[in-house]
Amino acid sequence: MSLRPSLTRLKSTAAVLTAAAGLVLAGGLSTAAQAAPDPASASASTPASASTPASAPAPASAGRAATGASAAAPDAIGVCSSATVSGAAVRGALPQTEVHRLLAPLTAQHRAQYGIAAKGPLGAPAAAGATSGAAGTGAGASTAAGASMAAGASTAAVRPLVDIHPAQGTAFKSQSGADGSCATQSVSTQLTVRESATTIYTPTMYPPGGSCVELVTVYTPSSRMVAAWDWCRSVNFAASVTINSAFLTTYTGGTGAYTGRVIRTSAASNTWSAQLYNHSTSRWDTLFTQSGTNQSGRTDGWDIEELYSTVGSSGRAYSCDEMAGLTFESSNISVRNNGTWSVASTANSDTHYDSPNSAFYCPTRSFQMVSAYDHWKDVG
Predict the structure, then answer these.
(1) pTM for the structure as a whole
(2) Which residues are within 8 A (CB) of 111 and not within 5 positions of it... i.e. 6 or more apart?
(3) Can you name the residues that pair with 261 across neighbouring β-strands?
(4) What pLDDT does residue 44 have?
(5) Among 38-47, 130-139, 321-330, which range has the highest average pLDDT?
(6) Range list of H helices, 156-298
(7) Torsion angle (degrees, nearest 10) of CA 158, 161, 162, 163
């Protein structure tokens, strides 16, 4: 792998399109048939009392937004290594049907490199027999090229409707024995995505070691969420919780940043669990657990800002306007190897997923690696 490889685990926008609606199924399928997850090996936390919530994002007044306060928490490293697990589901976790309703459109364009159904926005079908390849993200390259279809999928290729797909942050090196990552990550109730082809994943964390789960902070036109992406079975968003006042109270403790981790709980079955630290109980609650074989083929990982957006006639990305004046931050980034936690550093991390600043098409944006590589900050 080169020092500046393409971001092969592309993630894309939540465009609510007629074409997408016709193709995206309740299970997250959009361009190819897909087997449902094995209930015995996957669990999205859905409290018995949970009811289907409204899809509208929380109002800006609901809790503290990420507008400049540090995401750092003095005890976060200790919290990451804590074995105190509640055994309970994340409070407010949505029913899986609601997760799919809100986030399934994001699955339409992803994963062309892996020969499985794609994830992202859907455009008009290309001519029969046409083929398309995923575009790279390095050096400001556009990702407007389409995703190829999986074997056995429809012969009509689908063109994504995104122009840019940049990323910056911490990249975890592939290392033998890697089995987890953890970070304290800012959230915002002030970020409102208005442009339909813009999706912002910041921060999104995927541990090294062939994890089954990625923990993603998602902002789309219809939602603000902390979600879990299943990399081993459904290859789809599988669980989520809305960022609202209740979430801020329970999982940020009023700091505006939650601490999340993804750890391997069984090497034999390659079982991974995404967990959020509950400030009310001082225990870890479970958002999603999955086991199996990682379908991305990756053994490295990341804790990065990643987004998909389009560029207007002014040459400025729509995401630039959406994020203006807001600060997004990930701190206390750490990785686990054979059960032992270490802060992200040159020993286990670098920036091999970084795009240049110009790739964001946002002249007012600034990005800083505050401490290599356990703390980064982006000001929109």
Answers:
(1) 0.73
(2) 9, 10, 117, 118, 119, 147, 235, 295, 296
(3) 182, 275
(4) 53
(5) 321-330
(6) 245-247
(7) 100
Question: Can you give 102-149 as a three-state secondary structure string?
Answer: HHHHHHCCCCHHHCCCCCCCCCCECCCCCCCCCCCCHHHCCCCCCECC
Percent of the chain beyond pLDDT 90? 59
Structural tokens at position 225: 């969420």
**30 closest CA partner among 41, 39, 17:** 17
Average pLDDT in the 38-45 region?
42
Q: Which of 308, 311, 299, 290 minimizes the C-alpha distance to 118?
A: 308
**Max Cα-Cα span within the chain:** 57
Contact status, residue 161 vs residue 121, Cβ threshold 8 Å: yes
Which pair of tokens denotes residue 77?
């490293």
172 with 335: CB under 8 angstroms? yes
Residue 359, C-beta contacts closer than 8 angstroms, at least 6 positions apart: 137, 139, 140, 141, 164, 166
CB atoms within 10 A of CB 71: 27
Q: Which residues pair with 328 in a beta bridge?
A: 378
Q: Which long-range contacts (CB under 8 A, 24 or more apart) does 127-131 make?
A: 128/155, 128/156, 129/155, 130/157, 131/157
Measured distance CA(356)–CA(365) in Å, rounded:
12
Q: What pLDDT shows up at residue 26?
A: 33
Compute φ and ψ for 375, nearest 5 degrees: -160, 120
Q: Cα–chain-centroid distance for residue 128?
A: 32
| Contact predicate 308/361, CB 8 Å | no
The pairing of beta strand 340-343 with beta strand 327-337? antiparallel
Count CB neighbours of 347 within 10 A.
12
Q: What is the DSSP letter of 163?
A: S
